[in-house]
Amino acid sequence: MSPAFDLLITGAHLATMTGDAPYGVIRDGAVGIVGDRFAWVGAARDLPPDTRAHRRLDVPGAWATPGLIDCHTHLVYAGNRANEFEARLHGATYAEIAGGGGGINATVRATRAADDDELVAASRPRLEALAAEGVTTVEIKSGYGLDTATECRLLHAARRVAAEVGVDVRTTLLAAHAVPAEFAGRADDYVDLVCRETIPAVAGAGLADAVDAFCETVGFTTAQTRRVFATAGAHGLRVKLHADQLSDMAGAALAAEFGALSADHLEYTDEAGVAAMRRAGTVAVLLPGAFYALRENRVPPVAALRAHGVPMAIATDCNPGTSPATSLLLMLNMACTLFRLTPEEALAGVTRHAARALALGDRGTLAAGQRADVALWDIVTPAELAYRIGGNPCAGIVRAGRLMTRRSP
Ligand code: DI6
Ligand code: FE
């Protein structure tokens, strides 16, 4: 008779992130995996009599959580913008830098000039850093190509770098990220191109799982965003939105109107926007790295999101301009310190709720039937994941049932 499990993990306490207990904790737990799925999750004392397994992993005193999910990144690009960081510290503003040909368009120049191998080589250390902290699923946006061919290259590169690093990926087309230099002063003409050519090409080639836009005074208007969203919908693609980050554009309500998977940033979103998100089932993705890097002082409406029961996800927003961050654990700390989330809300934000922001119903909790993505941690309590500033207590990773790495204790 073949063993009951392909992999049996014992000795760990489980933060299942499901059920009524805080963190869904099961002390002295066990996790049985068959193929790429959890077959059994519970207290070790309740294990069925047949616990034969092809492989066993005993991790006494460790904690197991669902594999982490970074649901908003722009991690595929070339070059960096440390020079702009420095210029801002000498008094320049983000808008002045962008007006002078810097900002997103500086990264677009570097990215267009890089070939596919260079792009993957530049992006790979960023994804490796995320993966080393227990990230098993990542979302990667395009948006530094801003022409159809380069946007497609970025989406290809996103899938390639994810396959090389061993992380599951969801790709998002963000052609409406900025107006490219060759369309300066002609934003509507660029949106025409995105709707007429880029979205159909990307949808036709199956290169993206969703479409995003940067709806902002320095990005696209609500009217332009609507056109992008309507075109995405016509091609069967769900939408997400960079909404209300720097000003109140009623972006959250616009996202909700189009049944968006998520509305992201939300610093300036009002209560009506939150209520609309609730009705549409749109997830709030909070991005404390960008808030921190831009030294903003308006925090997202966390109390209203809680009161309306809108799920809150947390992500790195890994990008060269406003969040050069490659630590999701640091974002947990910032979400608690800057936005006053509880450590449990923060962990739900990179597991269960992040899964929902990507329409991934098969992951984000430790529960029978879910995809067997696990992060193992050398910690004493789950709050420690948000408490630390730096340091990496990740002790092992299981992705789709396969033990990827294990640090010896
Ligand atoms: N996401 C973005 O796309 C922009 N801000 C943000 O949070 C800016 C990205 C950049 O400056 O490269
Ligand atoms: Fe972003």
Descriptive report:
The protein is globular. It is of the alpha/beta class and 409 residues long. Helix 5 crosses helix 6. The protein starts with a strand and ends with a strand. The strands form three sheets. An eight-stranded parallel beta sheet has the order 8-9-10-11-12-13-14-15. Helix content is 36%, strand content 22%. The protein has 15 helices and 18 strands. It binds 3-[(4S)-2,5-dioxoimidazolidin-4-yl]propanoic acid and fe (iii) ion. The site of fe (iii) ion has 5 residues, from loops.
Count the beta strands: 18
Poorly predicted runs: none
- Work out the helix count: 15
Fraction in beta strands: 15-25%
Helix content: 25-40%
Q: What summary fits the major beta sheet?
A: 8 strands, parallel
Radius of gyration: 21 Å
Principal-axis shape: globular
Ligand roster? 3-[(4S)-2,5-dioxoimidazolidin-4-yl]propanoic acid, fe (iii) ion
User: How would you state the average pLDDT, rounded?
Assistant: 97
Which structural class do you get from the secondary structure elements? Answer: alpha/beta
SSE diagram, text form:
Blueprint: E1 5-10, E2 13-15, E3 25-26, E4 29-34, E5 37-43, E6 53-58, E7 63-66, E8 68-70, H1 82-89, H2 94-99, H3 104-113, H4 116-132, E9 135-141, H5 148-165, E10 168-176, H6 187-204, E11 210-215, H7 222-234, E12 238-243, H8 251-257, E13 262-265, H9 271-280, E14 283-286, H10 288-293, H11 302-308, E15 312-314, H12 328-339, H13 343-349, H14 352-357, E16 374-377, H15 384-387, E17 394-399, E18 402-406
Parallel strand pairs: 1-6, 2-7, 8-9, 9-10, 10-11, 11-12, 12-13, 13-14, 14-15
Antiparallel strand pairs: 1-4, 2-3, 4-5, 7-16, 16-17, 17-18
Helix pairs in contact: 4-5, 5-6, 6-7, 8-9, 12-13
The structure holds 3-[(4S)-2,5-dioxoimidazolidin-4-yl]propanoic acid and fe (iii) ion.
The site of fe (iii) ion has 5 residues, from loops.
